[in-house]
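Late entry, written up from scratch paper. The run itself happened at the end of the previous shift, but nothing got recorded in the book at the time, so transcribing now.
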Amino acid sequence: MRTALTAVVLILIAVLAGLTLSQAIRIATAPGDPDTAAPSGWETSVLATGLEIPWSLALLPDGSMLITERPGRIRYFDAAGELMEQPLLTLPQVEHRGEGGLLGIALHPDFENSPYMYVYYTYIRGTALANRVSRFTLSGLQPGNEELILDNIPGASIHNGGRIRFGPDGYLYITTGDAAHPELSQSPDSLAGKILRVADDGGIPADNPFSGSPVYSLGHRHPQGLAWDAEGRFWSTEHGPVARDELNLIHAGLNYGWPVITGDETMSSMEAPVLQSGRNTWAPSGMAYHDGALYFAGLRGQSLYRVNLDNDMTIERHLAGEFGRLRDVVSAPDGTLYLLTSNRDGRGSPVGEDDRLIRITIPGSSNSP
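Output as recorded:
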């Protein structure tokens, strides 16, 4: 149980970080972070070791996997359970600086007929950092030439966003960070601090909320997770400042507040999160829907968080500290979950096997959509 002295210390830290006194008090007195052990019956196994700052994972139709490493490599994990020693593809144009580098990866939803893999990465544009989304054909294990999908997304050594996923509508959704310039998140003319939506060839969908623009929602700080549940609702995880991490329910054209509001603050023209971490830090990254719940990976939280959509949005914390920092979680068609660790990113405490690909088997779980 937290003492009054601890609360005072938390308030002072928050005030020194630039918050108002009322904001600091709300953080210091917010509900505590859930602390739950892995449920009985969960089976975890390490499938691959020695990865270098893996960031995102994509499942191929045959059960093999593609894994991005932030320095600019795509690794191949075959269906037999072996990690190919040499990278499938190395991108020399990737600029691995701070939180930037080779980040998200996604496969075309009709991969068998349109064998494209899509990647999000940081590069140098002139004298500044920027991000882009490109695609490559993948015939067998031979990547084709790079095709640009979306370019000149503001970049920085922090807050690049980077998650890309195809939605149920067949469009590609892209998270971007504020690139260390919070005011850009509120500008509909900037691609920073947004969730973007484009066609598989980079075209702008006619029903996007801002005509001729890839912007789908705005007011984001550093979103890193995207998922759709069984009802088709669209969710995103987002890093907050001094804790106050968020789980947001995303709708086209809405403003999610950063930097005007955050955490439990409200404003009539802006959307508050469905859940927020209060004084605690999840540092939420990749997210997946699985069997009636959202699962998201926690970096500083060093946990796999489970949000029960069928039970009043209760949140559970699993695998706390067992594998260190977690970057991505993916749900396979057979009900298996796959995790990537991020202990070699300069903010963790790596062990000899890091970074790792981990499988979680949950007995009795059903397939995700």
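The first helix runs from residue 4 to 16.
(Scratch paper discarded after transcription.)
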